[in-house]
Each structure stands twice: as structure tokens, then as C-alpha cells.
Target: Cytochrome C
Amino acid sequence: MTGTQALGEPHPGKAVYQKYCLTCHQSDGSGVPGMFPPLSPNEWIADKDKMIELMLNGQSGEITVNGEVYNSLMPAHDFLSDEQIADVISYVRMSFGNDLEAVSQEEVAAAR
Ligand code: HEC
Model:
């Protein structure tokens, strides 16, 4: 996301989320117990670098999110543009009970 946004317009990351993340993590970010972890506040979302890496490289193996163990596979989303990745991370970081600062396109580009 760049610059200011008109009031009432959906965040640009919302459309990216709906297209690429919703099927697994659900529209309200609650996930599916034992299969897809929730996007409510947790250490992954809190850590910008971890979150960027997760988008670029995906994630597999056992992880614990809010006390529940997951051992599955999240596909890499490196086919998205730096802007789309920044937008969707920023959207997640301000949704589902999270209240964290946005991630910029430049930060994604630097990690890629
Ligand atoms: C095919 C299903 C699938 C899709 C699509 C998917 N994820 Fe995931 N995601 C997972 C799974 C499964 C894990 C846990 C991986 C593991 O067990 O190691 C995960 C883990 C995560 C985590 C870290 C743990 C947590 O719950 O906070 C975040 C953040 C996340 N995904 C965000 C996203 C975002 C944003 C998108 C869209 C760009 C996305 N995911 C798309 C399945 C998916």
C-alpha cells in the first residue's frame, strides 16, 4: 500500500487475501483446527521478517500457533509481486485482532 487511502475503501491487501489465502485460513482468519492455523495475533505475524520469508518460501514442518500444533504445508507465494506481498502482509497485520504496522514493498524486495 502506498500513500493515503480514501475512507471506506477496502485495503488493497484484502483482495489478495481473498484470492490466495482465504481457502485455507478462512475469511475471518480463524483457520481450520488441526489443519490451517489461525491468523489471530501470534509470533509469526508479529515478526515482519518471518512473515515476509513465509510468503516467499512457504512453510512446512511442525509449528505451534497459539498452543495448537500444526504439521502441514503452506505453499510459497513468491509468484506474487512485491507490492501484493506487502499488501497482504499489511492487511493480515491489521486484521483478525492484529494491530501492527504495515510492511512496505521495499522491505519485501530486499528479502527476495
Ligand atoms: C494451501 C493452504 C494455504 C494457503 C493457500 C495459505 N496458507 Fe498460510 N499456512 C498454511 C499452513 C498449513 C500453515 C502451517 C504450516 C506448517 O504446519 O508448518 C500456514 C501458516 C501460515 C502462517 C504462520 C502461522 C500463523 O497461523 O500465523 C501465516 C502468517 C500464514 N500462513 C499466512 C498466509 C497468508 C497471508 C496466505 C496468503 C498469501 C496464506 N497463508 C496462504 C496453509 C495455507
User: Anything to note?
Assistant: The domain at 12-111 is CATH 1.10.760.10 (Cytochrome Bc1 Complex; Chain D, domain 2).
